[in-house]
Amino acid sequence: MFGQDSPSESGGNAPTQEETLTQQLTLQEVVAATVSAINLNEHRKWGIKEVGHLLPEFKGDEAEAWLQRVDLIHQTYRPQDDILVLVLISKLKGPALEWYHSRPEHVAMNLKELKSAIESMFVIKEDKITLMRRFEARKWKKGEEFNSYYTEKVNLANKLQLSDEDTIIYVIEGLDNAQLQVQCRMKEFKSLAHLLSLMNEVTSSEKNRTSESSVKKSVNVSGTTNHSHRSAAPATVRCYNCNGSGHVASSCRKPKRERGSCFTCGSMSHKQVACPQSRANTSRSTTSMSPDTTTSALAIEPMNLTTAYSIPIYLSDEYNFKLCLNAIIDSGSVISLLKQKFVAHLPLVPPENTNFFGINNSMLDIL
């Protein structure tokens, strides 16, 4: 009994040394396979379409910034080199694409060779002094969008590798308004984004004020123009029978005048210029239409009228309220105008064969 090992002592259920070695090798293989799978997935999870969204088109300008973006994409997302080469070729446009197709050996270039060829062809080396002069000379032009000025100014600052604090100072110095420069310096901007946001608000408000003033100006100009059109008198025709305007002799409603007689009274002894009735009408109209202060004073000054030119008019209403007014009769005119309601009770018979009209050829009731 003592010469035999019991199952518990001999460890009949424990793995042998050979089995343990086999298990360790198997675990190492699993780890290696897992790492290989992870690396493989990292390379394959980015395709041409996904990487292509990260890179803009390239036409030959701003080559240095474009190549820097290519390097950042390569370092950050680690796509395969052959995929990145295809993406670069797909983004070439215009002169850059013509250059690529100009030599067949460009097709065989790897990523490093293609980047080097693009750099030697399109990157223009500009010395720092020249670049600084161009940066300082860039000003905000009158009528230019602020975003356009800001973008170009910041891009030049990035090429010079200036800090945000220095870039803000130079952007403010490039403004074309001294008062606006002072206000911006008082703001003490902490970031370029803050400066851009405030300037967009300022320029937007200025545009609104400018558009409102231009609209008001156009309305005023339009109103003035319309007024001038309204005030412009149309061409008129004159009658050779009565010397009136607005009609011709064939349609004149006044009695036919003898050739050579006065237009006003029909006398053959004088012309209209020397007619007593014309002079009387002219003097009265001149006195009434003259804008000087003396005439205005006479208009409100009581006058002692001659009896021959003034007659009393008695008015009364339905309540038997009576009022007597003095009416002036214009003896120099062939027509005296009265309102019909004042003489409606008088038995007057209108004359026949009358040819008189009111203002604008309106019909008159002849009493």
How does this structure look, described?
Residues 238-254 form the CCHC-type domain. Keywords: Metal-binding, Zinc, Zinc-finger. Residues 211-222 have a biased composition (Low complexity). By secondary structure, the chain is mainly α. The chain folds into 3 domains: 48-122, no CATH class; 128-217; 249-296 and 305-351, no CATH class. The chain is built from 14 helices and 2 strands, in the order ααααααααααααααββ. The protein has helices spanning 7-10, 17-44, 48-52, 63-77, 81-90, 95-101, 111-122, 128-137, 146-159, 164-173, 178-187, 192-231, 276-289, 293-300, and strands at residues 310-316, 322-328. A two-stranded antiparallel ribbon has the order 1-2. The longest helix has 40 residues, at 192-231. 7% of the residues are buried. Residues 1-11, 224-232 and 290-302 have low confidence and may be disordered.
| Class of secondary structure makeup | mainly alpha
Oligomeric state: single chain
Q: Quick one: how many beta strands?
A: 2
Arithmetic mean pLDDT: 73
Q: Using the alpha-carbon principal axes, give the shape.
A: elongated
The percentage helix is 40-55%
Brief characterization of the structure:
One of its GO terms (molecular function) is nucleic acid binding. This protein has 367 residues and is mainly alpha-helical. It is 51% helix and 4% strand.
Describe the protein's topology.
Elements: H1 7-10, H2 17-44, H3 48-52, H4 63-77, H5 81-90, H6 95-101, H7 111-122, H8 128-137, H9 146-159, H10 164-173, H11 178-187, H12 192-231, H13 276-289, H14 293-300, E1 310-316, E2 322-328
Antiparallel strand pairs: 1-2
Helix pairs in contact: 8-9
